[in-house]
Amino acid sequence: MKPLKIVAVSAGLSVPSSTRLLADRLAAAARQRVADDSSRAVEVRVVELRDLATDIAHNMVTGFPSPALGEAVEAVAEADGLIAVTPIFTASYSGLFKSFFDVLDNTALTGKPVLIAATGGTARHSLALEHALRPLFAYLRAVVVPTAVYAASEDWGTGGSGPGGALTERIERAAGELAALALGRAATAPATEPADDPYDVVPFAEQLAALRTD
């Protein structure tokens, strides 16, 4: 059985980054929930958009991805579950975050379970998850999990990010939802290439030969 693939996309710009920290926390929680709920092995990859910023800009202009960007795009397309985390700038997702999803094929996320998350300076920006991120992924025909996770600066400096804290509870709930959807999607995926369609159109030359032998 192939490992379940979970990819986290982080659009954090600083080093270290609270956006990357949240992506790592969510990915670790999703991995643990899959392990708790099944015997399926899990592969987790984090795509750091900061390292691909120039490649994304070039792709927007030329239409051709670099090898590094192409590999990241392929990883997202092949993922069984996606975690998408952005900092909130001017009450919405960052330009880097949006540009990455703009260069994806518009069918790459169809039916894919996606957990949306964001970081920001204050709790007032948490509504960006609902008015910006959720509509974006709905437009891309992804299956967005019910629980979105927002982490303000104050969440990291209090007990909220520790065991039993409010942020930890949101992370665990969202990760559980993603794991359940990803496991369900993987279970229903075809194990092999589909068989030849018996109703495929027979080439005209073969039809003509058959008529001549009737």
- Uncertain ranges: 191-214
Share of residues in strands: 15-25%
Ends apart, CA distance between termini = 48 Å
Mean pLDDT, to the nearest integer, reads 87
Q: How many whole angstroms does the radius of gyration measure?
A: 21 Å
The gross shape turns out to be: globular
Helix percent reads: 40-55%
> Which secondary-structure class do the elements indicate?
alpha/beta
How would you spell out the order of helices and strands? EHEHHEEHEHEEHHH
Number of strand elements: 7
What count of helical segments does DSSP give?
8
**Major β-sheet annotation:** 7 strands, mixed
Describe this structure as you would to a colleague.
Helix content is 47%, strand content 18%. It is built from 8 helices and 7 strands, in the order βαβααββαβαββααα. It has helices spanning 18-37, 53-62, 67-78, 95-103, 128-139, 153-157, 166-188, 204-213; strands spanning 4-10, 42-48, 81-89, 92-93, 113-120, 143-144, 149-152. Strands 1, 2, 3, 4, 5, 6 and 7 form a 7-stranded mixed sheet that branches. The longest helix is centred in the C-terminal third of the chain and has 23 residues, at 166-188. 35% of the residues are buried.
Explain the layout of strands and helices:
Elements: E1 4-10, H1 18-37, E2 42-48, H2 53-62, H3 67-78, E3 81-89, E4 92-93, H4 95-103, E5 113-120, H5 128-139, E6 143-144, E7 149-152, H6 153-157, H7 166-188, H8 204-213
Parallel strand pairs: 1-2, 1-3, 3-5, 5-6, 5-7
Antiparallel strand pairs: 3-4
